Amino acid sequence: MGRTSKDKRDVYYRLAKENGWRARSAFKLLQLDEEFHLFQGVTRAVDLCAAPGSWSQVLSQKIGGQGPGRVVAVDLQAMAPLPGVIQIQGDITQLSTAKEIIQHFEGCHADLVVCDGAPDVTGLHDVDEYMQAQLLLAALNIATHVLKPGGCFVAKIFRGRDVTLLYSQLRVFFSSVLCAKPRSSRNSSIEAFAVCRGYDPPEGFVADLTKPLLDHSYDSDFNQLDGPTRIIVPFVTCGDLSAYDSDRSYPLNLQDGSEYKYTPPTQPPISPPYQEACTLKKKGQLAKETHPQDCPISRVDALSQPLAAIQCHTVLGPEIKDNKMNCTP
Amino acid sequence: MDALGDYVWPRATSELILLPVTGLECVGDRLLAGEGPDVLVYSLDFGGHLRMMKRVQNLLGHYLIHGFRVRPEPNGDLDSEAMVAVFGSKGLRIVKISWGQSRFRELWRSGLWNMSDWIWDVRWLEGNVALALGHNSVLLYDPVVGCMLQDVPCTDRCTLSSACLIGDTWKELTVVAGAISNQLLVWYPAAALADNKPVAPDRRVSGHVGVIFSMSYLESKGLLATASEDRSVRIWKVGDLRVPGGRVQNIGHCFGHSARVWQVKLLENYLISAGEDCVCLVWSHEGEILQAFRGHQGRGIRALAAHEMQAWVITGGDDSGIRLWHLAGRGYPGLGVSALSFKSPSRPGTLKAVTLAGSWRLLTVTDTGALYLYDLEVKCWEKLLEDKHFQSYCLLEAAPGPEGLGLCAMANGEGCVKVVPINTPTAAVDHGLFAGKVHSLSWALRGYEELLLLASGPGGVMACLEISAALSGKAIFVTERCRYLLPPSKQRWHTCSAFVPPGDFLVCGDRRGSVLLFPSRPEVLKDPGVGGKAEAGSGPVGGDSGTDGSNAVAEWSPVSTLHSLHGKQGVTSVTCHAGYVYSTGRDGAYYQLLVRGGQLQPVLRQKTCRGMNWVAGLHMVPDGSMVILGFHANEFVVWSPRSHEKLHVVSCGGGHRSWAFSDTEAAMAFAYLKDGDVMLYQALGGCTRPHVILREGLHGREITCVKRVGAITLGPEFQVPCLEQPDFLEPGSEGPGLTDIVITCSEDTTVCVLALPTTTGSAHALTAVCNHISSVRAMAVWGLGTPGGSHSPQPGLTANIVSAGGRAEMHCFSIVVSPDSGTPSGLACHVMHLSSHRLDDYWDQQRNRHRMVKVDPETRYMSLAICEPDRPGVGPLVAAACSDGAVRLFVLQDSGRILQLFAETFHHERCVLKVHSFTHEAPNQQRRLFLCSAATDGSLAFWDLTTVLDHGSALLEPPAEPGLPYQLGTPCLTLQAHSCGINSLHTMPTREGHHLVASGSEDGSLHVFVLAVKAPELEEAVGEPELMPQLHVLEEYSVPCAHAAHVTGLKILSPTLMVSASIDQRLTFWRLGHGEPTFMNSTVYHVPDVADMDCWPVSPEFGHRCALGGQGLEVYNWYD
């Protein structure tokens, strides 16, 4: 497995690197726009959970270039600066963040809120799906503060067991909810994007960031757990068929005749949580269990105790006596 | 739903679940394990072992169990009954269970209470429970009635990643919450002035740079431990957390895991942590690692429990395995390395070689030609002999067998071999063999009857010496029996040897990596009656080497050779066990071989643990299992393939120095030379470890494909004693035991053969095939039969399997499953590897490949289909869906021993996801084979394979260059069925002679249509190749929002019934045949990310079975 291996398996990963996008997900937003014309008439856009910043790159290119357009990117983590993008390092569950966004728009509300955030998956599906749902609901919660009526909200969803609960939640706030999958998103991935248009909160709804929006629960009439009635929103595939296929493995020399050249990743992650552990591992300073031979080796004549047979279930006393057979100095 | 009529439509019920073990708890001497919504109860038996007692089904509905909390009993009596709160996701249920008189009973269960938010922790507060919820709030809940008593949020309503509740009453209840900001928040719900009034956190503790996944509080020492995404465990001195405002001090920051840490548990003297790296570490409270438990596979350890009285640690893995480990503190007793203090003025010279004669005698030679004996019991050195002919170059090998039969052999640079009886070294016998250096020396022992010593000399000549002892035991006789000739190579000597039972053959490995078979008595072989099968090349070859002195002796070539089986680094050992020959090599693999008809036959290549590139040997442990010896960088490792555990690790410096290994039931010994001294590692109890596998794991990663092979009926003599629910037998489970054989393959690069008995609702992994170098994504089965063939059928099942996956790799193997009362499942499975194929084979043969960029795509095979033409002489075709946009056809010949690429097409120009084959049979028409392929753009293509196979057909373009495959022409029908990728495909013939085709897509839609085949009349077709069958679509229906996610499993069960499975975890039945498919019913299942489904009818009494494979395996059944 060489370094070109990922370039062959994932053509969008490679194209993103070659076109200077910080992540392959930039193509997803571009393809969503192709289908829904998300950026039409948009002057103020918010990118939630922006790091590493590929969607902000797309937004600034599509909106920021048009004079009055403004893009605000919010993330908990630090992100390398991007031209034309106002960055806020903050928590999307805090009211202060919402206020700061509005401040940057000079008191106006946003036309478009996008969120491509996903938690670091743990591999336990129910936990991951729950965490992703909470992230989407937190994004929706802050969107209720900053989005103008009729505005548009695009967020990543995991289409797992309880995705219909999210659909029913989104339907409360938007006149049109669709599930869209750009062609640059792999077939094997459970991710998709909820494209919600026409922000229209129910009457009497008061936006309140101090209370989390909790997910809906199954309903015996409208959204059943295992019955025929479930809220499944229409599915739209975005991007035209002539686009590259994200599941297909391509040879390194693509058909347009250009010679392949390896491109390193555009923006490596900034201080990931495992950084210290990796540094220690590199230096060989991770704690290791003590093998018996790592103890100072005694002369054989100094063997202090006879070898004792292992007991099947030794009762653990209040103090453990270490067997110092081979560890005597 | 009014159209249901009077027909009772099937409803599927879950019968078996294999999922990650996400909850573990010790209750008295029992263990509760949560797997999906079920609880497994293990109990201590009289032998001191934990045994599975019962599976309590469906405690949490569609939720998965994440933990248990046992209600503390005031009188501390948990031996007869216990009240347990079971929770997971948003669900909570209380069960009262009793286990008096070794009988398990569920006395009562509450309703399943659904919370509004995720439950991170539960704590019993007298009769009620407190729940810590997902957005930092705490509920006081009456679990019996199911009503909320109090709901107190924190002012900071961030999303939590873990929480821990402390205290026994509501008044003292303390919440430690792990926030998404990586902080710990400590707050007191009882401080709320009124219900629902938020409480501000009392303390915020920072330290971790990643999310906190688990916490544990040890009240007696005032310690808190946290496990985090940043791969570290922190120990905090917190004092009594129930007192507000206390000081929190970080006293330990432990880095030891090489991935995220999922679980942590504080015990009185230890800290246990486990994580994504599949390692469970035992730390002291000072942050020193005392023990490391390795053995789980896959994505880590998800659950942890400890029993301090028994000194147990129990871990539950993502691989659905459960293991019990013994806490032993600092290292195991009776295990260690000692230097044997050879260096002394009375013992001049430096050590050259070491060997072990049994478990208590060690022999070594020096460069002065002196042989020394060290008695491990008396602990002193003794000089046996000194011979100046054996100076500077000397080989030393002790004889095999118990205590080395009291013999050892030495060889020198002048072609002389000395056999030494250890007890009477004066009786040593010298035997001159060659004119030059003896390159290698090895023994072969047959029972206690025949002992041979093999010595390789110059020119590839291997002399075979027969050793016998006089009746008095005082003298030994060494006679040369014959000479063998090794195949030519640069380093032309043998490395190891063994008798093949019953003893007609000797198997040897050589330095060039070949495994060779020699007749043990070649003179007898000349007799046509015995050696009739000997090859022509096995006759004696005249002394062409010319180097040895005794030209008169004939040299025998091997009767069978597996050339360079282990590569250039050589074979390291050969062992015979249970009818197979096992060879190990320095290529990091061991082979299972078979001697059949005087020929060596490779059966299976097996991989060892990662990084062990030098496999040095194989050893049978008294309990019948096998351990692998090898070198991992500078360490000697004893590894168990059964438990994936490194049983012994010795930092010896690597395999190039002289070493010796011996193992008896009492002790295992490993001796090596280091720093001019002999080092000895000893371990009491031999190669076994007291750790117990309570349940074997299945696959370490997602299952990508599941296929049912067939069924075996076992007579009553093979009935497995049923431990589970003897009082609740399902209807139809009596009578002869019917066992389904199912194969699964996974991203963990293995293919697994499973036995699923219909009676017990359990699963037994029979064997695993690990030949793939990358993930395995698809399998296909053909050639089902019974052992013994159709003439003399024996109970059991045989089948051929082809598997394919990443790196464009395909393997073909056969399985034989037969009854075997000695195994827990009552079945044994033998696997034989038949052939393999890789598209990029040429790449591996390129000399300077490390300097070149490999341009071709790394193709993955996504799906396979077997097409069996009825024409004689044509083997089955394998159709493969490839990620590079091709559909490829392979031909299998010689019952699977030859696998060749035959034709390909790039029609789809996108990743092909599915292939499916079907036959069309109609009166007066030729039987026709069709292939259907489906791609990521939602299009289907149908190919007429019967015409393709007619050579000269226009459908098959000859290759552009010889050696390349044929090109398939245009498909006979294409159809745009969906807007995006097709993840499932199935067909069924209808009574009208048409075909029902169903496909399911990524967008959750189903597409069903009727396909009519208008074939040319049989007579007309002759000589008129343009008359190809015409395909038409008659009726076409689409169900757009059938599922909320990818439809990955789809089966048409009958022309009126279809079942679909999706990643949204619903198994849905559809009625067909009345226009649009109509929804019948649906069941929520528990396996996430289902990639494949297989359904089959079992028997009229048992109904249908359906296996769903994804991140786990679940089996459903239903009755018609």
From TrEMBL, chain A:
Record keywords, A-Z: Cytoplasm, Methyltransferase, S-adenosyl-L-methionine, Transferase, tRNA processing
Residue span, Ribosomal RNA methyltransferase FtsJ domain: 21-199
Catalyzed chemical reaction(s): cytidine(32)/guanosine(34) in tRNA + 2 S-adenosyl-L-methionine = 2'-O-methylcytidine(32)/2'-O-methylguanosine(34) in tRNA + 2 S-adenosyl-L-homocysteine + 2 H(+)
GO molecular function terms listed in the Swiss-Prot or TrEMBL record: tRNA (guanosine(34)-2'-O)-methyltransferase activity
GO terms (BP aspect): cytoplasmic translation; tRNA nucleoside ribose methylation
A Pfam family recorded for this sequence: FtsJ
A cellular-component GO term for this protein: cytoplasm
Active site feature: K156 (proton acceptor)
EC number, as in UniProt: 2.1.1.205
Domain of life: Eukaryota
Binding site for S-adenosyl-L-methionine: G53, W55, D75, D91, D116
Location of the protein in the cell: Cytoplasm; Nucleus
Membership in a protein family: Belongs to the class I-like SAM-binding methyltransferase superfamily. RNA methyltransferase RlmE family. TRM7 subfamily.
HAMAP family: RNA_methyltr_E, RNA_methyltr_E_TRM7
Function: Methylates the 2'-O-ribose of nucleotides at positions 32 and 34 of the tRNA anticodon loop of substrate tRNAs.
Subunit and interaction comment: Interacts with WDR6; the interaction is direct, and required for 2'-O-methylation of position 34 in substrate tRNAs.
Name recorded for this polypeptide: Putative tRNA (cytidine(32)/guanosine(34)-2'-O)-methyltransferase
Organism expressing this protein natively: Octodon degus
Lineage: Eukaryota, Metazoa, Chordata, Craniata, Vertebrata
Gene name of this polypeptide: Ftsj1
From TrEMBL, chain B:
GO molecular function per UniProt: enzyme regulator activity; tRNA binding
SMART domains: WD40
WD repeat spans: 205-238
InterPro entries: tRNA_Anticodon_Mtase-Reg, WD40/YVTN_repeat-like_dom_sf, WD40_repeat_dom_sf, WD40_rpt
Subunit field text: Interacts with FTSJ1; the interaction is direct, and required for 2'-O-methylation of position 34 in substrate tRNAs. Interacts with IRS4. Interacts with STK11/LKB1.
PANTHER family assigned to the protein according to its UniProt record, in alphabetical order: WD REPEAT PROTEIN, WD REPEAT-CONTAINING PROTEIN 6
Name of this protein: tRNA (34-2'-O)-methyltransferase regulator WDR6
Organism: Octodon degus (Degu)
Gene that this polypeptide is encoded by: Wdr6
